[in-house]
Design a protein that fits this description.
Low-confidence stretches: none
Organism: Zhihengliuella salsuginis
Enzyme class: isomerase
Shape: globular
Protein name: Putative N-acetylmannosamine-6-phosphate 2-epimerase
CATH class: Alpha Beta
Keywords: Carbohydrate metabolism, Isomerase
Distance between the termini: 48 Å
Strand content: 15-25%
Number of helices: 10
Mean pLDDT: 97
Number of strands: 8
Family: Belongs to the NanE family.
CATH superfamily: Aldolase class I
Order of helices and strands: HEHEHEHEHEHEHEHEHH
Oligomer: single chain
Largest sheet: 8 strands, parallel, barrel
CATH topology: TIM Barrel
Length: 228
């Protein structure tokens, strides 16, 4: 389902919550992720981001805000919604926005990013969020027709160093580049202050996941602090 201009505007300057659990964890269940997404919306989230077809369906049933869906397959190189097949499956599951690897790296199915974006956008199936790792990625993703540009992969592709918090420099670069697409800040945003800084750097909206929806990581932060 294509994201409407009104729905996109509802995300401006606001928080998007990513509700994901890793395989083997107690919370790795679509119904649980749907409940977590609903709880985030009660707290004020303007949209949610979930991983897996069943999770997309659960989130669509649980919330009325835009749902960003993705399909992780593998762990290395291009693994966030890596092929046209994965992207179409996410769109068919009901995602308003399909998040996919938006880097310039070779995709497993040999399709170009532009071909993948076009396949998702055909017949108004869904909008596309390109998860990028650099300004060059973002330029290419915008040229390929992506509707939104994310900083999700900054620090993970080898083009940029991995910052301790969000890559504010990249966010500023993307905002200054005037790509004609909303820039979505995502990646290593662990505090409200960092979220605010990302927005001030020029982001259209800010995605926070681990710091809100991953109890194991949050607990570990406290345990490490007490141990130190």
């Amino acid at each position: 389902m294509l994201l409407s201009p009104t729905a996109l505007e509802s995300m401006r300057g606001r928080l998007i919550v990513s509700a994901q659990a890793y395989p083997g964890e107690p919370m790795r269940d679509p119904r649980t992720m749907g409940q977590v997404a609903a709880s985030a919306v009660i707290g004020g989230a303007a949209a949610v981001r979930v991983q897996g077809l069943a999770d997309v369906q659960a989130a669509r049933s649980a919330v009325e805000v835009p749902v960003i869906g993705l399909f992780k397959d593998g762990h290395d190189s291009v693994f966030i919604t890596p092929t046209i097949r994965h992207a179409l499956a996410v769109a068919s599951a009901g995602a308003h926005i399909v998040a996919l690897d938006g880097t310039r790296r070779k995709r497993p199915d040999g399709a170009s990013l532009a071909e993948t974006v076009a396949a998702v956008q055909s017949d108004s199936l869904a909008s596309v969020m390109a998860d990028c790792g650099s300004l060059a990625d973002a330029d290419a993703a915008a040229e390929a027709g992506a509707d939104l540009i994310g900083t999700t992969l900054a620090g993970y592709t080898g083009e940029r160093g991995r910052t301790e918090g969000p890559d504010l420099e990249l966010i500023e670069q993307l905002a200054a580049a005037d790509l004609g697409r909303p820039v979505i800040a995502e990646g290593r945003i662990h505090t409200p202050a960092q979220a605010r800084a990302a927005l001030d750097a020029g982001a259209y909206a800010v995605v926070v996941g681990t710091a809100i929806t991953h109890p194991a990581s949050i607990t570990g932060w406290f345990v490490d602090a007490l141990g130190a």
